[in-house]
Specification:
Layout (H helix, E strand, L loop, with lengths): L20 E3 L10 H12 L21 E10 L19 E10 L15 E8 L2 E4 L63 E3 L12 H9 L2 H12 L8 H14 L1 H16 L1
């Protein structure tokens, strides 16, 4: 059997699926990287129905971060961090900034395969005098995402969960003769100097710059009780996979993060598979 070739959605073969096209090694990403754009769009929009029967590699149906909870409050600077950042909302001890915090998960419905797992991440939106610092990067027009330091004014009429009232009669092009928002002609940032040939360059590695170091550091920071809970939560998923080679490939990630981490996850997975 011939090996299957990864392609773009138009059928063009993909030469490199691990690195994005940049302007020279370590340079900015390029809009011409069609494969990257397709992957980003797929990540943002693709849906996997919860009702799809689970397979060994598809235990967690549903939409990524489909469920979660959040709270309004304030962020208060408690220590001097001016040595690490120039952000104004962090420049004074005691300074308070409005904030919305969201915890999100990929949990299934109650009783589902993933319903016992811990939250997978969180997002923070700071409302500051300079504008909004949104650590999610969400581009909807929900009230919680709307800017407070200024008013957004553009030609977007639709979009996922949009709630602004531009209406179907609003113009969606610029320039126009109906008093719509116009470009300023003033660049927001200085030009960025780039050098080198365009292409899918392997990203230059920095100290401790790999896929496993931070995961290992987090594990080593945990208490004994926290480690035990983490191992128990992780082991349930791989234990349901029927193919041994797939299980071992998964366990290798934990071994690479921390030897004890890998050993304990492996022992827990193998114990569950033997039951």
């Amino acid at each position: 059997m011939s090996k299957r070739v990864l392609t773009t959605e138009s059928g063009a073969p993909v030469a490199d699926n691990q690195n994005s096209a940049t302007a020279g090694a370590g340079g900015p990403l390029l809009l011409q990287d069609q494969h990257l754009l397709e992957k980003l769009a797929r990540f943002n929009r693709e849906r996997i129905p919860v009702g799809v029967p689970p397979t060994p590699l598809r235990q967690w149906g549903g939409v990524v971060h489909a469920r979660g909870s959040g709270a309004y409050g304030h962020f208060e600077v408690t220590d001097d961090v001016t040595g690490f950042t120039h952000a104004d909302f962090l420049n004074t001890v005691g300074k308070r900034t409005e904030v919305f915090l969201r915890f999100s998960t990929v949990a299934d419905n109650l009783g589902g395969a993933d319903a016992v797992r811990d939250p997978r991440g969180f997002a923070v939106k700071f409302y500051t005098e300079e504008g909004n610092y949104d650590l999610v990067g969400n581009n909807t027009q929900l009230a919680v995402n709307a800017p407070k330091a200024t008013a957004a004014d553009n030609y977007g009429r639709d979009g996922f969960m949009a709630s602004h009232a531009q209406g179907r009669a609003a113009k969606n092009y610029e320039p126009n003769s109906y008093g719509g928002p116009a470009e300023t002609g003033r660049p927001l940032s200085a030009p960025l100097a780039v050098a080198g040939r365009t292409g899918a360059h392997e990203a230059p590695l920095h100290t401790k710059d790999d896929d496993f170091f931070q995961a290992g550091e987090l594990y080593r920071l945990m208490s004994a009780e926290e480690r035990s809970r983490l191992i128990a939560n992780i082991a349930g998923g791989p234990a349901q996979v029927s193919r041994d080679d797939v299980v071992e490939k998964n366990l290798a990630h934990f071994h690479a993060a921390d030897p004890e981490y890998g050993r304990r996850v492996a022992e827990a997975v193998h114990a569950l598979r033997e039951d």
